Amino acid sequence: MNASDDATPAPRVLATIIDGPLTREREVDALASHGWTHGSASRGCLIGAMLRFEGVVRRREPYARPGEGVGGATDERDLLALDYNTYDPMAERELLALARSVAERHGLIALSALHSRGRVHVGELSFVLIVESAHRAEGLAAMTDFIDRLKQDVPIWKRPVWR
Amino acid sequence: MNASDDATPAPRVLATIIDGPLTREREVDALASHGWTHGSASRGCLIGAMLRFEGVVRRREPYARPGEGVGGATDERDLLALDYNTYDPMAERELLALARSVAERHGLIALSALHSRGRVHVGELSFVLIVESAHRAEGLAAMTDFIDRLKQDVPIWKRPVWR
Amino acid sequence: MQVEVLIFGGAALAAKTDRVTVEVSGAPSVREVLAALHAQHPALKFALPPPETGRLAVNQAFAAGSHPIKPGPLDQGGDEVALITLVGGG
Amino acid sequence: MQVEVLIFGGAALAAKTDRVTVEVSGAPSVREVLAALHAQHPALKFALPPPETGRLAVNQAFAAGSHPIKPGPLDQGGDEVALITLVGGG
User: Fold this and answer.
1) Which neighbouring-strand residues pair with A74?
2) Which pLDDT belongs to residue A2?
3) Is D touching A (3+ C-beta pairs, cut-off 8 A)?
């Protein structure tokens, strides 16, 4: 047994905004361009839990009835796509700050957050969050925490494109 | 708009226990043998969140010091593998009952739970949980709920194989 | 009469066996079998739920405290009884 | 003097523009710009945080209520000010 085995290294963190839907290929490219991949083998087998969250554009979205404005009574309508509008470069910077703060607070081994910019069609991915932790409890808590705070602090807006 | 668009079908649920580590190939086979795959396209684009949890065998495990017995003070030691001992066929039946009850309580679209039986080496997967839901909140709550209750109700035990 | 109780995990490791036997009278309830385990197998105490609130698996399904158990060997019509605590899946 | 405030999302849709201007005196704080937005752009009310507790982004970073803002156009040394509420990523 080696003392360095017990040392907790700083969490590996990645946050990036990508044009268009998040495909597996774009995700792999983004991870690789930051020089690392997710997975147990690369972390000395300290990982006990790997979590992945994918946000998918749904076919139905709440629709503000004409005349009632934003915040009025809503219905659901069929969607073609969502247009994600980001305030650049603040959005990516805040995404990274959030990733660092959540990874540190929950003692994670690694966290990657990827978000789309621009048009994402129904059924496509607009958001991917990957969390690696020693145990499941902190991984689940971190995932919930990240997603809640994403909606508060990261300047990304979506605009529905109706069918 | 069609009335049947709004009907919530019963959640699709799968639970299975597989010999050895959970590889991607074994997972795909298990899903296919139940006649279905995960993914938005197959659910009429009602899915807004896809979550995946992977339980990985860690290199370090708590170790009960000799003479202090189970429940005594513990240390951590290096592991070669975990042997998962299942009470068959109750384990798979309880896994399925848990999957159904969590999927219904949280209004999920689909839930799959796969667990290993027998030896799983360090760095390999012993548990995979996939959740599909309309929105993120119920998916995250369902995942936490499932994992907590797995540890209470499903007769699976692990025995460490030390290095 | 006797009820054979299957044990697993830490309980089986501590007892160095995968089943233990308890002496009971008549057709006991789950509660009574749990009380007999406490009395007759003190080494398993760490793994035993309280007799009043615990459950056992009877014929591979969880059974509440009042559930009656048919004693005797499986091959002579006895119930399959299992102590299921401290599970560790996932 | 004037401060130009970038707006996004529902606020931009409601105002049919991506920026609004408020009249201020001297070098106002974030709190004073928020109060001016409330007074001079009532149509944005649904999207505005309370002047006392709200924040704006100043030069692309969140700034608290007491943070001073340099008025004037960006190309004349003014701060870049943005109203960031009701975000909807994920």
Assistant:
1) A64
2) 42
3) yes
